[in-house]
Amino acid sequence: MTIDPLKTTHEEFVMPTYRPGFSLVRGEGTSVWDSDGREYLDFLAGIGVLNVGHCHPHVVSAVQRQAAELMHVSNLYFNVNQPALAKRLSEASLGGKVFFCNSGAEANEAAIKLIRYWGHKQGRHRIISMTNSFHGRTLSALAATGQPQYHKGFDPMPQGFDYADFNDLASVEALISEDTAAVLVEVTQGEGGVVPGDPTFLNGLRKLCDNAGILLCVDEVQTGMGRTGHLFGYQAYDFTPDLITVAKGLGGGFPIGALVAAPHVSDVLQPGTHGSTFGGTPLACAAGLAVLDVIEDEDLCALALSKGAYFQKRLTEIFADVDEFEEVRGSGLMVGLVLNRPAADFVGLLMKHGLIALATAGTVVRFLPPLTTSDDEFERALKIIEK
Ligand code: PLP
Question: pLDDT category, 21, cuts 50, 70, 90?
């Protein structure tokens, strides 16, 4: 791999919050090409963004058409795409109203503000989130993120967050007080190591929240948009949250985030309480509408379930006799290969052989392939992994 001429300019002018290795210049479906023309199978999909694959033609043409007509109007005016996307998200999930923003962290900020505003009326403000959770990098989303290493150096952190242990209902119950307003949880922890939520835990959370009279918010930023085999991850369980946050896969590569509320908390945020200049532009919502079309037309939820089960089974077979192997876990096409040693070296080797994945939580190889990935592409990826 030649040193990309972009590298020098990048290092001089872009803040070093990331350390990119090389540049990708083109994508189509599950394939991406670097600046030397080398093809990779993208089994990370922009970290769970490209659920419909790179540059899906339906999304591309919707964005091109909308860009030529009207990209942006402020939220002081109606734009036809915003209520259309809100209606489809609402009808596919909680049945209430939607607030649009531009990222996962912002969707969680909106949820935290809604919870605070709702809770203040009853003297409650604290939010219980989980250890090893990930909710984004803005200050409150970061405070909700139960990983102290990300808080280091940024204190004082926003107050009002308590951390329970994921999949441990008693630890949540022990933290609920008269100050608690809500519980915030991922149904499968992504960044925390691809850890699926136990049904007794998640269904039990609903009961705990009902008994305490508090809200349950599910962060679907990574688990949403078909990734786990359902449009939203919670739909694999027997409970309905009061709030869900969505981003990543919603725009098919175009930045968009959303907070979806159940009817009883749909009108908590009133004019002047929250807002976003770019939230829900005609362009972003055109992308979101096109992504929903593709997920439905190509039956991507069902494919995520069946292909996810196959991929997980094959990984388990391949690694059965490998000393460094612990387990394969995940939901649908959100898959973690757990090793008993740091995963970064293995991820580096995969990359050398043309397969993009990510090391997460130290020892986990995280795979988030597009839900459109073909059988042939799965076989090619499995061959690389096996090698
Ligand atoms: N929530 C979850 C579960 C995530 O996985 C992420 C990002 O990885 C976020 C929130 C933050 O999203 P964003 O990077 O779009 O702000």
Answer: confident
Residue-wise pLDDT for 48-70, tens only, equals 999 999 999 999 999 999 999 99
Q: Is the CB of 27 under 6 A from ligand 1?
A: no
Phi, psi of 46 (to 5 degrees): 65, 35
Kindly give the distance from the C-alpha atom of residue 257 to the centroid of ligand 1, in angstroms, as a whole number. Answer: 10
Query: What are the DSSP calls for 185-204, one per residue?
Result: E-SEESTTTSEEPPHHHHHH
Query: Position of tokens 């009883």?
Result: 264
Of 100, 134, 201, 367, the catalytic one is 134
Query: What are the pLDDT digits (tens) for 246-275?
Result: 999 999 999 999 999 999 999 999 999 999
| Size (the chain), residues | 387
Give the residue from 374, 75, 52 showing the smallest Cα distance to 225. 52
Q: For tokens 């985030």, name the residue.
A: 257
Helix-strand-coil split of the chain, %, nearest 5: 40, 20, 40
3-state SS, residue 37: coil
Question: Measured over all CA atoms, what is the biggest interatomic distance in the chain, rounded to whole angstroms?
Answer: 61
Plot region of 258 (φ>0 → left; ψ -120 to 50 → alpha; else → beta)? beta
**For ligand 1, atom 10, which residue shows the shortest CA distance?**
135
Query: Which of 142, 222, 232, 368 has most ligand 1 atoms within 8 Å of CB, for mutation?
Result: 222
The answer to whether 219 is a known catalytic residue is yes
Quote the DSSP letter at residue 177.
-
How far is residue 208 CA from its own chain's centroid? 25
Judge whether 40 and 380 are in contact, CB under 8 Å.
Answer: no
The Cβ of residue 9 has, within 10 Å, a number of other Cβ atoms equal to 10
